[in-house]
Amino acid sequence: MIEYLIFLAISTATFALFSLGLNLQWGFTGLINFGHIAFMTLGAYTTVLLSLKGVPLFISAIFGAIFAALLGLVIGFATLRLREDYLAIVTIGTGELIRLVVNNQDLPVGNTWVSGAFGVQSYPIPLSTEPNLFFRLLMIGILTLLFAVTVFSLWRWIRNAQKLQLTNSTDKTSSKQEIASRFGVGIILGLLATAIYISGVITLYNYIPKAGLMLVSLLVLAFVFWRLEYLVRSPWGRVLKAIREDEEIPKAMGKNVFWYKLQSLMLGGAIAGVAGAFFAWQLSAIYPDNFQPQLTFDSWIMVILGGSGNNIGTILGAVIYFAYDAITREVLPKIIPLDEARLGAFRIMCIGLILMVLMIWRPQGILGKKEELTLGK
């Protein structure tokens, strides 16, 4: 049970990271990207192939992010002057193009060349060997610090909603809904953080390699979230929001809209490239079929569930998605007598129904703001 929770924590952190990149592109900038998986694919393969050449894992992951950002640069120059519907078509085609190239291209695995269809195996993974007691205790200390910062940040986030209610006397109903939403989300994320913390302490002390990977993935997620929150509240982020609402306004103010869109696409791609590294490390062996377009749409589900244009909402969407996936995978076979293929289709149908209900009841997502809704654009 504990090892399964560690697995879910890594998956959630990886796809929360992946979805944060998409949320920057769509939720904050209004760029419709249906080929987001291309960045993850390039980041994963770059990290793995460089590590097999002896490049340190941290440097390999950075290069994976850089190559993913460069892909964003190429896509941006080719597509950002197109209309939104054409942009969506081109990006989904690019995602499939990257996967098919990897599938049909020989890859430099170590000192030999191997067909991409055979996949890549036996590559280095962070913290795969058991560290000594001092280092394990140090890792537990880092996890404890991360847990404390998370709980404090959630408490401050809830308190900020209460302060907004005191200053906003015109719309008390909306303020109360905001407080209720934040309080409920804060409790859920706090309980989840506690469960992960306890499981992490146990598995780091009685060391398993996945526990070390979980710690690294959570640290990277926390860092990326922290910097993104700073960026989207900065003048740069406000320009992105202005582009999302009506790009003619920032143009009239002398802003280079194309350059801002390009920056958003590249930074979102770099974040997805880092997520690709963690995805590859968790799988321990990668194949082209691991990077199907479905992963992009899973990411869209996470962003829509939590609320576009809200980084905490994106993380919440990833938590809900993987909680739903884990619960239905374990519970549904005991309730509904279907074979595995039909059960998988039924689970997809259920989450589609949930999304339909959510779009009717709260189209902006759980934590999204209605005035910042981009679905109708």
Could you characterize the architecture of this molecule?
The protein is mainly α and 377 residues long. It folds into 2 domains: 1-130 and 207-372, ABC transporter involved in vitamin B12 uptake, BtuC, CATH 1.10.3470; 131-206. Helices cover 76% and strands 3% of the residues. It contains 13 helices and 4 strands. The strands form 2 sheets. A two-stranded antiparallel sheet has the order 1-2. Strands 3-4 form a two-stranded antiparallel ribbon. It is globular.
Biggest sheet strand line-up:
1-2
- Number of DSSP strand runs: 4
Estimate the global geometry from the Cα principal axes. Answer: globular
Q: Could you give a short account of the major beta sheet?
A: 2 strands, antiparallel
Q: What labels would you give this structure?
A:
377 residues, mainly alpha, ABC transporter involved in vitamin B12 uptake, BtuC, 2 domains, two-stranded antiparallel sheet, globular, transmembrane
Q: What topology does this entry show?
A:
Elements: H1 2-28, H2 37-52, H3 57-79, H4 84-104, E1 106-109, E2 112-115, E3 120-121, H5 133-167, H6 172-205, H7 209-233, H8 235-246, H9 248-252, H10 257-283, E4 285-286, H11 294-306, H12 311-335, H13 340-361
Antiparallel strand pairs: 1-2, 3-4
Compact summary:
It is a multi-pass membrane protein. Helix content is 76%, strand content 3%. It is mainly alpha-helical and 377 residues long.
